[in-house]
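Suppose you are handed a protein chain with no further information: no name, no annotation, nothing but its sequence. What can you learn? This example shows the usual starting point.
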Amino acid sequence: SPPPSPPPSPPPSPPPSSPPTAWCAFEGEHPVEFCAWTHGACDFRWTMNQGDTPSAFTGPSVDQTTEHNTSYSVVHVPSQSEGYYIYIESTWTRLEGDKACLESPAINATATPGMTFWRHMYGLHVGTLNVYANTSHNASDDGLLFSTSGSEGDRWIWTHICLSDFGLTGMQAVRFEGVVGVDFSGDIAIDDVHFGDCLVTPPPSPPPPPPPP
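A reasonable first move is to predict its three-dimensional structure. Written in structure tokens, the prediction is:
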């Protein structure tokens, strides 16, 4: 008699519909646009955007993945870029000191202690970008991990934080806080958040664009 036929191979696993929640490019094709990140109880919300922000002379014109996809390579989230990023809009009803908060899902700071993201802070009246370890969901107990203020030029800047440097282990959450400056030209944007290993030598940021003639 003929030999028995081998059992059929199992079907391949379907590809994931979106990146892991710890990685977020804030792209519009995600089933959940903010990758399970949530808005905190602050004065207003971060906004997803594509292309220029509404105000002139502030904010990015493209997302960082589009800007650097041919000339500069560092760790990117596993997502096809559609040109989106998130930012705080500092015009209209916003007042100096108003805050927009965005909190990550639970992150295993022991397994993935290195946090990277790109920031864009351009305009005459840029306020402050803070990053907190939201360890207790009580703002008074949160630990400041990173803070920078003022205009840094019309460019995306790569940023690295090693959570273990702050003694953070186990399940944690991280919160971005954008603070409005004194006037309308103060948009702050972030893109491509990634959690992985701490990096000993971060890559340099790309040079700023040349001044206009």
